Amino acid sequence: MQLGGILGDRGINIDAGIFLENTMRMIYIPLVALATLASCGGGNDSKPDQSAPILAVAVFKSSESTQCVGGGLTLTALEAQLTAAGVKASAGSCGHDGRAYAASCGGPDGRIGIFDIPRTQVQAAAAAGFVPLSSLPGAGKIPC
Predict the structure, then answer these.
(1) Residue 73: C-alpha distances to residues 53, 55, 61, 79, 114 (Å)
(2) Are residues 25 and 62 both part of a single domain?
(3) Do 64 and 130 fall into the same domain?
């Protein structure tokens, strides 16, 4: 069967089997992909369990290093500040505050020290100049 009449009198003849096969591919492949993605879960739009206690909070403090010069406080020095404030720090890592800085030698470079501390010690850490990492939405960990 030729589909030339369906496509008009433009002299185009398409085999009905090929036409049907290509049409099915255009419909079948996206449907299979959609069904596969839908079966991956994601149906739980509820918020995280609020009854589960948050045992640790990530806090940060600037390392006070500068562009071109570097320097500043080491991760060990920042951890010592927490210890001196009576805060038990764990999982220390280097990070960046996620802010953009104009290129300027001697200007801030955004490097921070990030530590996990018990949530009960957030006030003591704040007294030492540490701030919850959640206050910096663009912040992230980087290699030291």
Answers:
(1) 32, 27, 10, 10, 12
(2) no
(3) yes
